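retry 2 of 3: previous attempt timed out while embedding tryptophan. Reduced batch size to 1 and resubmitted. Inputs unchanged:
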Amino acid sequence: MSNNTSVNSRWSSNFAYILAATGAAVGLGNIWKFPYIMGENGGGAFVLVYLLCILFIGIPVMMAEVYIGKQGRSTPANAVAKVAQQNGRSKNWAFIGAMGVLAGFLVLSFYIVIAGWAVAYVFKSVAGDISAAGGDAQQIGELFSALTSDPKQLLAWSTLVIVGTVVVLANGVTKGLERVVSWLMPALFVLLAVIMLYAAVTGDFAAAVNFMFSPDFSKLTINGVLMALGHAFFTLSLSSGIMMIYGAYLPEGTSIARTSIYIAIADTVVALMAGLAIYPIVFANGIEPSAGPGLLFVSLPIAFGTMPLGGIVSTMFFTMVVVAAFTSALALLESSAAYLVERRGLRRKVAAIVAGSGVWLLSLGTIGSFAGWEFAQINAGAMGHNFFEILDYLTANILLPLGGLFITIFVGWVIQADSLKHHMGLGTKTFQMFSKSVKFISPIAIAVVFLNAIGWLSI
Ligand code: TRP
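retry 2 succeeded.
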């Protein structure tokens, strides 16, 4: 079959693409993870490093990935192989694409569990459980641990998330993905803006701004720098195959540079807005910013319990988290589903179901980690103490940076610069900047930070 290795769907417009890619980028990473890792790493200095990583590494890597996808017009592994061959290089570079699809698959397996918590919290907010606790830390703590230690609840909520994802994807790129995202993304922005205003009015906005934007470098460790870099990859959905596959659906005339910059800006704005929505509330209630993963699900609900309109705001807040997570889950499953369609010849519906079932099975490892199942408790030292922590560390801090490293080496050194410049349609200046990043800045920065953090190098 001639079309067995090519992708035929196209976004119906540039705007649809930007919305879908922003939907992929904006997710739990922005609203759940970024605020708490910023808190754990001292605030301002971490934010600054993170912004630099987005600008000098994230955007160029995104452009490189979209380029590979658009040029190869296939799922990631095939796209990389095709681009390699067009440049007279070995097909074996395909491993970069395969690694991405694998990383996306692994990320999704724990992503649906955390997204499930957010769904549960929407229901708890509506049922009045959050306001009923009246800000009692112990009661909220128990609410959270009752949820996270109960495998039945965890399983029910995460199953709901993956089933929803499969249903949308089964309808295809334009009829499923695009249509849903074009409703959900505007809703997300509105919700976030309203919550931020609420936080600014009722909370300690000045303290939040101060925490996020005045850097204290004494609080930043090398591991913090690795986390900022790893998070720049995670939040932009890089190295997980997705920007390649979304690039493969790109209409012919789209500017890769311009759209990548828009997507990165939108993603960063949402992350900063999420910080500015959460931290005023945190500080006004005397909560520690370094509360970790529980920041969103414990600290905030404690605050909501004492605040005016807390129940409503809590409902809006967790609805927003669900929306953000869902549009990312769609993207995460897309790369596996598209792979099954292209490589295994499955029909779209079947592919979505098969990929979704695989993710669901693997998610049992994360559920077990929280529910205390024996098999999921694995001590891997700095990498974590259970299946979930190890998976999180392995993807965000190892697979994603490593994938980024290979992508930049491939685009910067393996393929021919003339053809790259021509196909990307960049001006000479922009191309020089891009080229400097993928040839030198990104690979060196990634390598140094990475080797340092895993202990092979120490600065
Ligand atoms: N960017 C997503 C977030 O911030 C997480 C993510 C990582 C992702 N890789 C992805 C989402 C690939 C979609 C596709 O939450």
